[in-house]
Hints:
Largest sheet: 5 strands, mixed
Distance between the termini: 50 Å
Signal peptide: 1-29
CATH superfamily of the largest domain: Glutaredoxin
Family: Belongs to the thioredoxin family. DsbC subfamily.
Number of helices: 7
Main location: periplasm
Shape: globular
CATH class of the largest domain: Alpha Beta
CATH architecture of the largest domain: 3-Layer(aba) Sandwich
Order of helices and strands: HHEEHEHHHEEH
Helix content: 40-55%
Function: Required for disulfide bond formation in some periplasmic proteins. Acts by transferring its disulfide bond to other proteins and is reduced in the process.
GO molecular function, one term: electron transfer activity
Oligomer: single chain
CATH topology of the largest domain: Glutaredoxin
Radius of gyration: 20 Å
Amino acid sequence: MSMPLSHKLPRIFAALLLLAGFAAGTAQAAENPAVALLHDMHKAVKITEGKGSKTLYVFFDPNCPFCHKLFEELRPYVKQNEVTIHWIPVGILTSTSPGKAAAILQAKDRLKAFYQSEHDWNFGDTPGGGITPLKNPSPATRRALETNNGLLADHGLNGVPVTLFATTDGSAFYFEGTPPADKLAEIMQYVK
């Protein structure tokens, strides 16, 4: 027994809307590389800091001075519980970067290791992050670091810091580098 057309139309319409939404999402990702990167954040191995309603994802290299400056400039937002930051360590800048990123990723308390690297900036045995590079990371840590490095490379990004977020208008945006504090304050108004 066949269903009357009047009963089929709502299902056909719903299917078309679903396909149109999928196509629009795919087109938006193609037009806006930040959408595609944001979509891939579930793959990243992150260190979460803060409990604010706004969310940032920040790719950083432990030896990157601009990443360290961004860390410092974000302190007021963390202290005021305005933001949750997912820090994503990569090892791309110097010969000690992979070992330092691995030391953070393999630590029992990643946030504590991250803080050590940032708070002891330029006080360690090597310039940059103040954490001792890990010489023999575990296979899981190596995979995590490869995943994080790969996310940058797969999206055509080769510098750090890269800060990514969903916007209040429902889109996505990222910027490279560290903006001046006043510009960062403007940007934070658009972070969802």
